[in-house]
Amino acid sequence: HVDSTIANRYGDCKDKSVLLLALLRETGVEANPVLVATERREPDKVLLPSVSTFDHVVVCFENDEMRCLDPTDAYTPWTDISDWIQNRVALPLNGEPSLSVIPADQYRWQLEASSDIAFTADGGQTEVQTVTYLNAYEGQIRSKLSGLGEDDRQKWASDLYESIVADGAEPEFTFHGVDELTAEMRSQSETTFSPYFSATDGFLLEESDAWIQHELETSRIENTRYDVYFPGAKITSTYTMTFPKSWHISRKPVALDFEHLYGTLSRDVSHQQPRDGQEVLKVISRLQLPARKLTAKEFAQFNAFISALSDYSLITFAGSATK
Question: Is 0.85 topped by the overall pTM?
Answer without folding.
Answer: yes
